[in-house]
Amino acid sequence: MQLPGEKIVGLAKFFLGVGIPGDAKDFFNQIDALACLEDNRFSVPLILSLPSTVISLTKNEPLKVKVSTVLGSKAPALSVKLAQALSSGSKGSSVINNQELKFDADTATYFLDSFPKNFDVGKYTFVFEILVDESANEKAYITEAQTKVPIAATGAITIENAEIAVLDSDVGSVESQKKLDLTKDEAVSLSANHLQKLRLSFQLTTPLGHVFKPHQSFLKLKHESQVEHIFLVKTSGKKSELVLDFLGLVEKLYYLSGKYEIQLTIGDASMENSLLSNIGHIDLELPERPEKAARPPLQPTDPYSRYGPKAEISHIFRVPEKLPAKQLSLVFLGLIVLPFIGFLIGLTRLGVNIKSFPSSVGAATSALLFHGGIGAVLLLYVLFWLDLFTTLKALSLLGVFLLFVGHRTLSHLAAASNKLKSA
């Protein structure tokens, strides 16, 4: 099946552009398809690629182009020509025409080391043409008739004539005006009421002196209550300007009087010196908020504030109660022990017989454990704070323990009694 060269190159770009599949089988099929395009005798596609699509005019970076097969093999003898460089801001006009690129054999790179004087900051579409020397090649190589690549030319943008002013709403006269250096933070202090206006203006120019219109240009007013308002700075003619009429913004500002921080943001993909400048603050005096007017929205809390330092806890501990003297406590302890001593003396006076207490080590140990178990059961009466289930669990364990050691003790006593009777 014969396919046009454009479709074969398009198929190769498709396989290269889908990235690396997540499945191993799909990845194998992708490599296998590229290998089929690489190793065939009829039509081997050549791919043009750029190491970088961003050119810095400040650093005088050259334009670099590489041509290879789909798997990165070295391309045959050929020439690369920059047919056109179309600017996005112009209507079909090209700043570069039919410029042949030089070849560096060490890096296998085609490059253009200098640009024409009218090549300025902006976005372009470069149109390349590849001419293959077919007489010097055994294989048939195919390329696109023209390869279009988007290019961004970046540079330092000059910021001039920046100023901020407070105007009277009626006649538009300037009440106060400040010159600004937007390349660094300022500490401008202004004041205004709802019958006045705030004007911010500046000029942006490219290295060739052309008017530059940034992709993003915003002025932010941030109230001391953290309520923020963002306004778009528009570029008209040679000047970027924003005029805020506070009389028409009182509802948007939620009638919040007080201090507003002023911050300007200017950014663009072609602007190497994009900025975020803190200009200063303005004290606004707005009328009181009507009852039916909208209230400012609640500001979200910082989720990381919970990990910050907490307020110091001031706590006064209770004054400890007065304790009795040490000697009095010892006397009271002795009075508690006296009844137990009297109990032992009473047992002796009554002639309690402990002659049958086992004398062997094993039997004596069982007897002591048996009496200790009975004492533990009596101790459960003292532990009144235990719940019923805990008490029953402890009592069941003690019961099994007493059954075991009590049986051994009684067995020893029965055996000793039988010996006495038989004697």
Automatic annotation (TrEMBL):
Ribophorin II C-terminal domain residues: 317-415
Pfam families the UniProt entry points to: Ribophorin_II (PF05817), Ribophorin_II_2nd (PF23861), Ribophorin_II_3rd (PF23860), Ribophorin_II_C (PF25147)
GO cellular component, one term: oligosaccharyltransferase complex
Domain Ribophorin II third per the UniProt entry, residue ranges: 160-284
Role according to the record: Subunit of the oligosaccharyl transferase (OST) complex that catalyzes the initial transfer of a defined glycan (Glc(3)Man(9)GlcNAc(2) in eukaryotes) from the lipid carrier dolichol-pyrophosphate to an asparagine residue within an Asn-X-Ser/Thr consensus motif in nascent polypeptide chains, the first step in protein N-glycosylation. N-glycosylation occurs cotranslationally and the complex associates with the Sec61 complex at the channel-forming translocon complex that mediates protein translocation across the endoplasmic reticulum (ER). All subunits are required for a maximal enzyme activity.
Organism name: Brassica cretica (Mustard)
PANTHER family, alphabetized: DOLICHYL-DIPHOSPHOOLIGOSACCHARIDE--PROTEIN GLYCOSYLTRANSFERASE SUBUNIT 2, RIBOPHORIN II
Transmembrane domains' residue ranges: 328-347, 368-386, 392-410
Protein name in UniProt: Dolichyl-diphosphooligosaccharide--protein glycosyltransferase subunit 2
Pathway involvement of the protein, from the record: Protein modification; protein glycosylation
Compartments in which it is found: Endoplasmic reticulum membrane
Membrane association type: Multi-pass membrane protein
